[in-house]
């Protein structure tokens, strides 16, 4: 089973994991790690690697980070060569929900990654546009 690791600055990843528990139930093989201002970056990188090893039972780990170019993303980017991971940025709830949905079908890591890319983008909706209220105040 593909593991999921949510990484962010501040408490975003922990908050999204809590949201998952409320809406999707307690997720299997999922962990969250948040980077605080006072955290040691080298220790944070070691924790990421440890979590990846805990979550990977041979099917790999989908790592989802909050922002491209931030420390969580950058540290994981260095691991793409030697760890069985896929890395996505722009972490949001539709991305996580899509990951769970696709994982339940027995999909592989790359299939889950591709499915999440679509759903994460499609989950961003302008309600004014969707309700055809453009130009109305």
From TrEMBL:
Native organism: Amedibacillus dolichus
This protein's name: PTS sugar transporter subunit IIA
Major location category of this protein: cytoplasm
Keyword list, A-Z: Cytoplasm, Kinase, Phosphotransferase system, Sugar transport, Transferase, Transport
Annotated signal peptide: none
Compartments where located: Cytoplasm
Stretches assigned to the PTS EIIA type-4 domain: 1-124
PANTHER family xref list: PTS PERMEASE-RELATED-RELATED (PTHR33799), PTS SYSTEM MANNOSE-SPECIFIC EIIAB COMPONENT-RELATED (PTHR33799:SF1)
């Amino acid at each position: 089973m593909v593991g999921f690791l949510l990484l962010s600055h501040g408490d975003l990843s922990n908050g999204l994991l809590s949201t998952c528990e409320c809406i999707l139930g307690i997720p299997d093989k999922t962990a969250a790690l948040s980077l605080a201002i006072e955290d040691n970056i080298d220790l944070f990188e070691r924790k990421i690697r440890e979590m990846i090893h805990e979550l990977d039972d041979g099917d790999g780990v989908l790592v989802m980070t909050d922002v491209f170019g931030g420390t969580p993303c950058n540290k994981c980017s260095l691991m793409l060569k030697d760890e069985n991971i896929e890395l996505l940025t722009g972490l949001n709830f539709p991305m996580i929900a899509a990951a769970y949905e696709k994982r339940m079908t027995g999909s592989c890591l790359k299939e889950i990654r591709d499915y999440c890319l679509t759903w994460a983008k499609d989950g961003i909706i302008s309600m004014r546009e969707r309700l055809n209220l453009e130009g109305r105040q």
